[in-house]
Amino acid sequence: MMFTRRSFLSRMVSGLSLMCAGAMGASAAIAKTVASGLHRISGVIIRRGDSNYELWRSSMVWYIFKPDRYPDTIIRAQSEQDVIQAVNHAREQGLKVATRATGHNPARGCLRNGGMLLDLSRLREVEIDADAGTAWVQPGIRSEDFIKITHPQGWAFPAAHTGIVGLGGYLIGGGLGWNMSDWDIACRSIIGAEIVMADGGRLTVSATENPDLLWAIRGAGPGFFGAVLRYKLKLFPTAQAIIKSKYLVPIDKMPYLTKVLEEITAAKDRRLEIIAVVGRFFPPDEPPARRDLVGAVSAIAFGRSREDGLALLEPVARSALPAMSILKKEDALLSWSELYAGQETDHSSPNRTAIHNIWTDKPAEGLLALAERMQEVPPRSPRSFVLSAWGINQSRDDSDSSLRYAADHYISWYQMAETADDIEPNFKWLDESVELMQPYTRGHYINEFNSMRFPAALEVCFGTENWKRLGELRRKYDPKGVFHGYLGQT
């Protein structure tokens, strides 16, 4: 091929033009980033067109099965200043913001279509005031890690039963945690906070400063209209002796078991936690598909001493529960780490797809109804289970929190999926179970259900007056709707 001087020059001009266009495009992209203020963010910025976007999007929820919802931008904040910059950028660009701590909310509510997902999981600082019995915590610190920090200093907290759950979403949505019947639901221990609001301002919240926001973050859940940078928490003297007894009871004895649980609950001290789960747990050395459906009861005493802990377990030991069990392990003295290590249902948690719950004053009837349904219409996955917590509400006075206590007992049920084909049958099972449980339902807990599927249950979570007040506060603090509301909310 012959090249003339003219053709060579022509090719050179074309090449330079392409290079200039590329440089101009890159410069335009950089200029756009600088203009938006994102260049001041020290954390990670992922846009929907990036090659690694799907990897990042999938990592935002802990569960295996992800919803088909796609934020435009994901920002993993590295500092509190990053959070302020991100909120300001979102407001200026007309992007709605969803926040994430560790992505354990079963509704996968941090994933929304469009807008910005603000990931706070790297914010994990903890400051303990051992003399005052308080702590400042950032949202990304995980429950078990928080206990590991507080315990050596003589303090504890009603952190989540699953150790890897971050405190951010757990706290703001209520927080059903360890020793709750004595230490109360976790959100009631929030005594202060620092929050980035929709206007980019950073507000301090306490009983005397912006008390309406303190009321809101005590239970508002994943529809809150701000990004909480840190919480100030009241701590509790740590238990000196955590003692656990566990019993497996044949499923055909469930009517008798629920009556025994009622008797134990009526007699127990607040420092004795009673949890009853129906699932395929026996024999424990077999895979779930080859196990029998049983009732598994855990009685956990948070004692001041070993003698005190054993005394707390007396209502269980003298009941008919030990005699009716096919397998039992009694009076095991546990460390906090051992307590967290013993949660078998956590192994199945990433497979959860269909979840619902109720507050109830009829735990025996509700648990029995779901146990019978599991026998008559077995869930798709043998790892599905029903959980009940007995006598966990120490007080109906919830006037200082948006959380609404509706009853003294709690029941939730969890449908697992082994494959994507299980998801729709799980939802059908769930819908039918929700209808079945209506006679026993007195309320719902915001952190453990899918409001997109059951939007009417949102108001039930809070009660009419609290729901109305939350709406008024949203209009006051986020009039332009910078932050996403609840999934399913119109």
Please name the defining characteristics of this protein.
490 residues, alpha+beta, Uridine Diphospho-n-acetylenolpyruvylglucosamine Reductase, domain 2, Uridine Diphospho-n-acetylenolpyruvylglucosamine Reductase, domain 3, Vanillyl-alcohol Oxidase, Chain A, domain 3, seven-stranded antiparallel β-sheet, 18 strands, globular, disordered N terminus
Gist of the model:
With 490 residues, this protein is α+β, with helices and mostly antiparallel strands. It has helices at residues 5-36, 53-59, 80-93, 143-150, 167-172, 180-183, 211-217, 254-267, 306-312, 314-317, 321-324, 336-341, 363-376, 423-436, 457-462, 464-477, and strands at 44-47, 73-76, 97-100, 116-119, 126-129, 134-137, 155-156, 190-196, 202-205, 227-234, 236-237, 241-250, 272-282, 292-303, 327-334, 352-360, 385-390, 409-416.
